[in-house]
Amino acid sequence: MMKEPKGFMNRNTFEKIIKDIIEEDLCFDKLTPFGLGESTLHPEFFEYMSEIFSMNKSRKYFRSIDLHTNAINLSDELIDLFIKHSDQLNTISFSIDAITEDTYLNIRNNRNFNQMIQNIRKFFIKRGNKRVPRANLQFIVMEENKHEAKAFKDYWSSFLSEHKIDFQINYDWNPPMVKDTIFFKRLNPIKHEEINKSESLHYNTMVDLGLIKTEKNNEIKEERAVKSNEYRGEPKRRYPCSGPFKYMMLNYSGELTVCCIDTLRELSLGNINDSSIINLWNSPLNHSYRLDHIKGDLSRLPRCINCNNLDSPDISIDELERYLKHFGHKDHLKCLEEL
Length: 339
What we know:
Blueprint: H1 11-23, E1 28-31, H2 45-55, E2 62-69, H3 76-84, E3 89-95, H4 101-108, H5 113-127, E4 134-141, H6 149-162, E5 167-170, E6 180-186, H7 195-209, H8 243-246, E7 249-250, E8 255-257, E9 270-271, H9 277-281, H10 284-295, H11 302-305, H12 317-326
Parallel strand pairs: 1-2, 2-3, 3-4, 4-6, 5-6
Antiparallel strand pairs: 7-8, 8-9
């Protein structure tokens, strides 16, 4: 299997991104300085984030910023920077996935479990009574860690309660995570044939935790129940993904794609070092991606055919209709009637 080459975003690429955003006066709902690796490993991560916060005063270019990290390199300096700019940094998602050293080592091949836990606890203590940056304590459900799900929930529930921190427990992206959240996330497998197994494992684990109500488990507290649309029936046909319409994914070399799980950049629109962000985003290639999704014909997009993120709720019928009318594709409006 091909893998994404490892690397760090160099200064020229970083500055080109900032230059394009400022010159085109672009505004994004959210910036997530994270991809398929650990951002805090970058030797200039503190400097890059400081520059982003500085250029984004009054949230002119990014309405919010979210960060994902394993917290191993979460230094006091970084924590202080994040808390200082909590008016911009909305959420930090901590990738934890275990509650014991052995399981953490088995999943991540990393012996820094205790350092990670210590750093996360330190973040909460330093943040004090502030509600932001909000924290997601993430546990991706896998065969290797499913036996620790309850202990994970109990440990962090106890810690947050002890420090009088209001929190919620989610197993889906809904309801919105407006508080610190203990998040049991479904694994997104690379192999399409493993999707059903991942769904079943996640569902059964959530039932065991009492987060999904069944006939055998009717004592669940409603405030901890997440009414998910994740396990509902299939729509008439594949709902258009919001990726080609809303999500710009830039890797460290400057290559732009439309999907956060397009690890091999099969949907690449090109490199921002060779063109501007806006030209790539509004290119004929991306318009073809959008129309293929609207038509429900993904025969030219194998990365999309094998994706398990079906029936995305992130783009509405009204938004799709406005897009078709704006770009002169009214002949495709009838496709929306099938959704």
